[in-house]
Design brief:
Length: 168
Amino acid sequence: MNRNETAQEYIARILAFSEGHDPRAVLGSTAARLRALVDASPRQRWQLKPAAEKWSAAAVLAHLADAEIVAGWRIRSILEKNGVALQPFDQEVWAAEFKYESADVDESLATFTAARASLLSLLQRVDPARLSHHGMHAERGVETIPHLMRLYAGHDLNHLGQIERLVR
């Protein structure tokens, strides 16, 4: 979430990316799209920042990996307990403190790929009745699993486009 937008503005912006897309298809294809970008782009391109205050492609990929860990935890928490509290995190603090700019691209991709595969597998095998559960995000309010899937699909598409532009 950009520091200058509200939670509702963030949700609207990110959901716009997934409009007209099947969220499961997007979620299922992101790791392969990221792998193709990593394989096709010289490593030095991953370290370039478009501006001092902006993230490099390597930092965006590190963010995607961490965000996927968070997504997996949130969805697992919701599946366990309907109405569970969901804690936000500050992506700018994580980027600075976890040193996203020096994160290894292959490690970030491996983390993202494994966490996403685990989440998709879980969603396939869990009792379908649990998919109607919701969580209560401290900043964004009620979040159902279908809503989160659309949100994460939009998040993927947003950052895939960003990475594509950065490594060109």
